[in-house]
Amino acid sequence: MSFVDQLRQAAEPDWTAAVDHRFVAELFDGRLSDARLARYLIQDYQFCDAFVALLGQAVASAPDLGSRLIHAGQLGAFASDENTYFTDAFDALRVPIADRTSPQLEPVTEQFNALLLKARDSRSYPQVLTVLLVAEWLYRDWAAADRPLPARPEHRGWIEVHNTPDFTRWVDWLQQELNRKAPAEAEARAELMRLFVEATRLELAFFDAVYAD
Ligand SMILES: Cc1ncc(CO)c(N)n1
Fold this sequence. Notes:
The protein is mainly alpha-helical. The protein has 11 helices and no strands. It has one domain: Heme oxygenase-like (Heme Oxygenase, Chain A, Up-down Bundle), CATH 1.20.910. Helices cover 78% and strands 0% of the residues. Helix 4 packs parallel to helix 7 (107-122), helix 5 (65-92) packs antiparallel against helix 9 and helix 7 runs antiparallel to helix 11 (186-209). The longest helix has 28 residues, at 34-61. The chain is globular. It binds 4-amino-5-hydroxymethyl-2-methylpyrimidine.
């Protein structure tokens, strides 16, 4: 079994619980309330801030120009398509400016951002790749569901930024890149596995927080 398949197996049952989450089901069938979607997007915009910083570290720490350019291309996509989705959805949901720029963070958002920034500050390319891979692969998994898309742009758009052919190829490439660049030593691999499992736990908790009282 490849290294990334071992990582994903180690992240069960949380991985499947996140992919099959009530949030995903309600997003696809359009039943997700505006209050819950806004609550999620406000927190996720702060996650995205730390995520973009981590992508910048991938550009900085990649060992060769070929890999660096792939991460750089992804940074560009993030800065355009994904950011446009957020600003359009915030406008449609009438989210106040303060909640877009400096909201009160949920505990899980603080924990997730701390993990992203720790990986960034490690300047370890395998650690950076591992955290990027969880976030992108897990989102590709739920967004690739063979279900009709909801009509409202606020719902549909969040699925569409994660199910394009470009996004699918980016996740394939991240998997191959980590398989190629993972260290050989058992202890270093075990550390990456702990990181992958912890990031998956936070992905599940991030969806759960949308439904917390
Ligand atoms: C919490 C979270 N995980 C992954 C993604 C995908 O980048 C996202 N937008 N938010």
